[in-house]
Prior knowledge:
Distance between the termini: 37 Å
Helix content: 10-25%
Strand order of the largest sheet: 1-2-3-4-7-9-10
Bound molecules: fe (ii) ion
Oligomer: single chain
Shape: globular
Order of helices and strands: EEEEEEHEEHEHEEEEEHEEHHH
Structural class: alpha+beta
Amino acid sequence: MTTTAPRTTTQAFFDPATGTVSYVIRDHATRRAAVIDPVLDYDFRSGHTGTASADRLLAYVRAQSLQVDWILETHAHADHLSGARHVQSQAGGRIAIGEHIRTVQATFRSLYNLERDFLPDGSQFDHLFEDGESFRIGDTEATALLVPGHTPADMAYLVDGAVFVGDTLFMPDYGTARADFPGGDANLLYRSIRRILSFAPETTLWMCHDYKAPGRDSFAWRTTVGEERAKNVQAHDGVSEAEFVKVRRARDRQLAMPVLILPSVQVNIRAGAMPPPAADGNIYLKLPVNRL
Ligand SMILES: [Fe+2]
């Protein structure tokens, strides 16, 4: 799906294995670009990684002769490994995430008993965004918005009048992100959602995930503030914070952990890098037992 706004074009890339939508935003005037939430393929059964998903996105970057300035993560994903390092190795760009990634790093450093050299200071990323921080993609102004709840560090990115919402809202017929991972907070998620829904009703919202919904046969990842306010099954206008939290918590109690949460988070808090090799020169991911 390609959408052209006044200054930019947004190209979406959907990964059916994880239900993740990655984006390339291209600034018309300068051919500068930002990549959002690229995926590194990972086969849980074999432990093999692959770059087919990220390479589709990179093929578009090359075909359009784009210069990648930014690789933006909305948060430390729990359902897929980040392809940020692969994209950076092929196309350059600075890997950025919200500054509260430090909190997430501290939580998971302990959970995984990571090596002493792993510091929960965000230094694994090239840039940490504060809430409300402005940045540029070529000549286009963008703003990083802190939208915690799903995790303490979730960011949304406002670019050229559209919001890339990360894991806050899903499509109106599916609802919202879960809030039960370590550091998740359904009350905060509600307030973050209301912040996004305070933009003008015609504002385009780009989702980070889609899993279809009962009665819908095709994947979708684009909607508007107005549609979400009118129709979001968990967070439409009129749903109070207390009601939302009750429904969200009840739903979260029924959800299994994502298949890739344990391999994903230890890579994603390193900005998509693998852990250092073991003494034999090979790389190992950890599966903590009875910790999550
Ligand atoms: Fe997520």
